[in-house]
Amino acid sequence: MRAPTLTDVARHAGVSYATADRVVNARGGVAEKSAERVRRAIAELGYVRNVAAANLSQGRTYRFAAIVPKGQDTIFSKMQGLLEREREKLALDRVELLIEQVEAFDPRQLADCLARLDRDGIDAVSLVGTNHPAVIEAMTLLRARGATIVTLVSDMPEEARDAYVGIDNAVAGRTVARLIGMAHGGQPGRVLPIVGAMTARDHAERLAGLREVLTETFPDIRLLHQIEGRDRPELVAARVGAALEAEKGITAIYSLGAGNPGLIEILRERSAPAPRPVVVVHELLEHSRAALEEGLIDVVIDQRPEDEIQRALEIMRRGADRLPPDPVAPLGAAIYVKENLPPEMGAKTGDD
Amino acid sequence: MRAPTLTDVARHAGVSYATADRVVNARGGVAEKSAERVRRAIAELGYVRNVAAANLSQGRTYRFAAIVPKGQDTIFSKMQGLLEREREKLALDRVELLIEQVEAFDPRQLADCLARLDRDGIDAVSLVGTNHPAVIEAMTLLRARGATIVTLVSDMPEEARDAYVGIDNAVAGRTVARLIGMAHGGQPGRVLPIVGAMTARDHAERLAGLREVLTETFPDIRLLHQIEGRDRPELVAARVGAALEAEKGITAIYSLGAGNPGLIEILRERSAPAPRPVVVVHELLEHSRAALEEGLIDVVIDQRPEDEIQRALEIMRRGADRLPPDPVAPLGAAIYVKENLPPEMGAKTGDD
DNA sequence: TTGTACGCGTTATCAT
DNA sequence: ATGATAACGCGTACAA
């Protein structure tokens, strides 16, 4: 059986094609009586709009934008690289992808960028969630025009966005607690947490998760007071170094923010006095991958930016095609040890 | 700038639309001179075939098939459920998905099923890789017709299929070794591996990976001789019970095949004599999830069938649309502990 | 060997 | 408030 077309619907409802179209696309100017008949016909025949035909007739190429904070060797720089690689694939499907850079932690710049994209008539946007009135207002305007907005990595109030793509940070913290607990094999210990800043929602959530499970399940492992590294390597190095001097029995370190090159530097210096503490950090990047391979750290928790981007783009596409968003399971973080590192997808293989 | 159409190409090459079409779709019957001009025009204009328009004109709905082995509370039953859920989503894009059941480990039935699908003119097929001449022959016939074939979970020779979607089993074994090693916290131990059968390629690979890393990195942890459970719960229960009696100092158990309900039963009976061994099993299913929540086991390695299916379908779609396959990173296995279990996506939420 | 013209289902424009 | 119809880009049947 052929899928019913809008022509079928119109015939079934006893109206012209144009009238049926007006109902489907909510263009208005239709007598309630006719509209009702069309709606019934749609239900009875099980009509579904043919996206391919719709896009064809409009001759339209969608325009998506991804707003990425600046910063090198961070989760964001990695995302940017991945996005650039998605471009050509999207081009085949007539989707143009704009990648916009903004200064990290600068809500004004972010809001301005959104406003600019609004003027350009963009169809969908993804951004790293940032709770600030100006940002929320710019997003509201965009969405009023029908654009789809996806928050990435860090979420915002539900009303402000169409979807959130990212990991559950409390779960990440709890998981790390379990792994650290297992690595103690029943022995007591002390865990040193390193945060960027406790004002960052994701950092606070991770730490809370860690604390919960340590308290409930591993009461012999004590949680020390956190170090604030402001996500800056030099600061992290200095403060971790000091902490390791001051506090002697540290059996585990959990770095739940950025600035890990600083931590790794300290660990390399002190690699001699075995057994070194169990070390867990976030995000699989150049430096953390190297440290894992070198045996300086034990576990990396990763957001899997590849999948995040995949999903974000899928949501944007569905929004642009005016399809209902489909409920997907929340994204789980990956757990990497030395043995299950993914192959580096950096440069193309060249030969083969 | 509007994307160039085949009409543009034809004009640019100074030939008719039909001639350009013949070149693009390799229909033959074109003078080499004309063909060359068309190819040049394509390159110069950067023409890309508009898939949406092509599908529209053919009024065609793609037909995909997924062949799934029978078996309850296994990775396959889970996949079947997931596939059924994909059906409606696919229907929106005019793709019909057939789900075919076959007896597990029955190459003849599998080959027959493939032949039947071939007669039906199917566009793409996914199946669990099974190395058998009859299966390979049926696949060859299908592919000769232009159908795309994806092997799932277990691979086959490269020439026989278009793509493999599944985890790297050696990596899985190595990863488990690391986790078990970490859980020993420097202490010595003995690991009991449970396989289905050493003839199963994936089982053998996992065990080999385990052995490698234990030998290299954790020489104090001894690998005991494996138990063969034939993937059957009763057999696993009996043999594991016997092994635990005979061998006293077991500190870890790695079940790398199926039949885990049997293992879990034994563990529940013996939960008293703490500390129990570290237990790692494969596949997140009802029983393994429950055991993890109950604290009877410690780690579950999962293939993430959701993602496997997603990818397999994406590859099939690209094949059907005659797009070049895009190189994707191999799928990584998920590591689950009690704290990072994904929400159960079983029944629909009912309310809200 | 080459060229023409129609239909696919939708959108958008121009009548009535 | 309603209806008719020309695109959109591709595949294909048919004509030359």
TrEMBL record, chains A, B:
Signal keyword on record: no
Keywords, sorted A to Z: DNA-binding, Transcription, Transcription regulation
Residue ranges of every copy of the HTH lacI-type domain listed in the record: 4-58
Domain of life: Bacteria
Keyword Transcription regulation: yes
Entries under SMART domains matching the protein: HTH_LACI
GO MF, one example: transcription cis-regulatory region binding
InterPro entries from the UniProt entry: HTH_LacI, Lambda_DNA-bd_dom_sf, Peripla_BP_I, SBP_2_dom
Pfam families: LacI, Peripla_BP_4
Protein name as annotated: LacI family transcriptional regulator
